[in-house]
Amino acid sequence: MKQKGLVPQQVYIRKEHKETLALLEQALRLPVLPPDILAMENEAMSQQWTTKALYDAINATEFPHKEHVTLTLEDGTDPSISLELGTFGDMHVHMAASGEQVFVSTVLCHASQVSDRAGFNDACLRLNPMNPLSNLGITSMGGEDIYIIFGELSSRSPLSNIIEEIMVLAHNTIRAAHELQSFIH
Prior knowledge:
Layout: H1 18-28, H2 35-38, H3 51-60, E1 69-74, E2 80-85, E3 91-98, E4 101-110, H4 117-127, E5 135-141, E6 144-154, H5 159-179
Antiparallel strand pairs: 1-2, 2-3, 3-4, 4-6, 5-6
């Protein structure tokens, strides 16, 4: 076995899972994993993401257009991740893992930039169902209302799903800004 480049690994499992482990062990000895084993990587994680672990994972992965992404861990009582996406006009996306969810958001515009709030709100509500994986909302920051685009995922989501959420959110924000530009001055 050692001559084949294999290494021993001791694992502790329930007795009733011995047959499954034997099958998995045979697959893990192959030079290339079968597709059904690779698909396990897309299953939900058994451990929840923390903001720090998510930051480390994103920093270590091949994020799309990584050369145009600035990633920062903002420490504090509730740490968050800041991503500056150069491919999307230096869009700032903020992300945090807390409890059962990962929250991803970016600012669409400040309420003070909207010429007709009632019309803008109506337009946002009509656009919202057409934004896959993202929602439009209002929140306050520094005593001022701001419109945001946001998405939420399970804190047990695979990293690939979280990266997809970030990219879709960026695309949806560009689309929403274009669709709503007549209300923004």
